[in-house]
Amino acid sequence: ENFRRAIGLRIKENKEVYEGEVTELSPEESESSTGGYGKSISHVVIGLKTVKGTKQLKLDPTIYDALIKEKVAVGDVIYIEANSGAVKRVGRCDAFATEYDLEAEEYVPIPKGEVHKKKEIVQDVTLHDLDAANAQPQGGQDILSLMGQMMKSRKTEITEKLRQEINKVVNRYIDEGIAELVPGVLFIDEVHMLDIECFSYLNRALESPLSPIVILATNRGICTVRGTDMTSPHGIPVDLLDRLVIVRTQIYGPIEMIQVPISCLIMCSTFLCRNAFNVCLLCVADISY
Questions:
Q1: Which parts of the chain have pLDDT scores under 50?
Q2: Same domain, yes or no, for 136 and 224?
Q3: What are phi and psi of 63, to 5 degrees?
Q4: Any domain includes 21
Q5: pTM of model > 0.90
Q6: Tell me: the pLDDT tens digits for 38-53?
Q7: By residue range, what is the domain housing residue 278?
Q8: Three-state DSSP class for 212?
């Protein structure tokens, strides 16, 4: 799981969207199909304005639910995906910035270009996000839901078979140029505590093209590999040790031990932290003895 959390995927999608400032939002009601005195929303009329022009749209009632969920009001800047009907509230139009003296609203400029346009949407996800989305697939508006719809069976847990299926889809996306792999860094401290089975998994996982940069840290010399009777440097099996670049770290010497509090002293004098200033002076005094 941590391996897949450290592997990122940048997915680019070109979508047709309707984007602009909301100038009109009018839900139209009709008699309920179930009878009685109740009424239901038949459609929604929404007006969008950009720098180049305006457009009035007649939307499905289900999109009205998404508008309510996003708390869209007149004066907000939104975009609506043409294919899925997903609604995203970008912020409040900056023309209303002087409406209140203090508020927590984010103001954005009115969109340029036409109301109906093609827009490139970039999403950064990890392989674990895709695993979790497919383990509990739900209808949604993002790329995670799109990947979930590709899998026919509705899985309830993250299995090795599910991960292999996702890897196939990810590799296909990379070959088609839709997605870009962004390898991260996985840091494993106290690596000598891992047993032989963990090292076997690490050895196999590092051979995969979808693998992050792995940094192992330990403070042991020659010791026994857990789960076996053999001894090895740093408690790591020799077959894995041969594939590693060993970077030796050393204990701070007298010069480094003086440089640390002096640098802290400079920072404290910059920020005028008197208490920390005194602490740094004590550190320097102790080291000088």
A1: 141, 152-153, 155, 273-289
A2: no
A3: -70, -30
A4: yes
A5: no
A6: 677 778 888 898 888 8
A7: 254-288
A8: coil
